[in-house]
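Action item from last week, closing it out:
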Amino acid sequence: MLKDITLGQYYPASSKIHQLDPRVKLLFTFVFMATIFMVNKFYPFVFIILFVGFLAKLSTIPIKYLLKGIKPLMAILIITFLINAMLTPGQIIFDSGFWLFRLTVEGLQLGAFMVLRLILLVVGTSLLTLTTTPIALTDGIEKLLSPMRKIGVPAHEIAMMMTIALRFIPTLLDETDKIMKAQMARGADFESKNIVERAKSLIPLLVPLFISAFRRADDLAMAMESRCYRGGEGRTRMNELVLTKSDWISFVGASILMILIAATRYFPFGV
């Protein structure tokens, strides 16, 4: 289950999506997320799904690998759907007569919307990290935040922290998997149906995980200090980010498509 999380991982390839400027991918990710929350009908999601599939095809990332990141969120998706389906007032289509166990047409629609939005958010952000190296992601975030240095915002430090956090997600997941297997070999039960027992079994998992995380953070700090890291002041780069014509065309074209899809919110037709 833990190995199914794709957020923060990088999929090495030489596709056109991989070659795009990280600033373009970051900005478009925000446009993509805003579009998802603007859509209030079902049919625009078809165009978004087709567009995401097209991006996955261009990036040469297998669809199965991209969708693998949804598997760990299945419980959250089911709970989100049920809560919206049962708590949203409207035309009742099923009522058990017991507390909140009733379904409404409006609730089912809202639940489906929320599930689709969550799935597309996970897939969209996964595409960003899968096609962008941590170093490129750091440079892109820093470049985007650099105008805010004039008001005292530490652009380089923020970019570094965000990138380190993303970079260490796969590392911590791998460490968690190793600790779980070691504890299971010693008799720990992480698959018990008893919630109390499962909660107790997490204690011998979380303690060594936190100790390992702090040790890795200390090792990283010492490694950066031994290499004379002093922040972004006076720092040079081997590869400077330069926006090309293809970057501009890709961003403008994809953004126009997202704006047109978001504009369907104000169309009087469609479901």
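Closing note: The chain has eleven helices and two strands.
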